[in-house]
Amino acid sequence: MNRQEYVLKLPVITEKSTDLKENFRTVAFKVLRDANKIEIKDAVEKIFKVKVESVRTAIFHGKKRRQGRYSGRRSDWKKAYVTLKEGEKMIEFSETV
What we know:
This protein is α+β, with helices and mostly antiparallel strands and 97 residues long. The protein has a single domain, classed as Alpha-Beta Plaits (2-Layer Sandwich), CATH 3.30.70.330. The chain is built from three helices and six strands. Strands 1-2-6-3 form a four-stranded antiparallel beta sheet. Strands 4-5 form a two-stranded antiparallel ribbon. It starts with a helix and ends in a 13-residue tail after the last strand.
């Protein structure tokens, strides 16, 4: 299996990411923690068949959570903001409930 096929975990669909998508041609994805910008760019271009202008990444640290006397921690994760080139079709996601 090629690494490009599983670099992107899932799209991030929030109010902020929807605003970025509509106004700035930017799509947000949850990606592998060790993925770099070049791998993310190649994966988006291959999977969605669009041209990528830039990729920005952010690492989110997991929150500490408790349930009664037991405490734990959510895992860290990485988000990628992918900006598409002008004239490219916007990536559409379907929400299934």
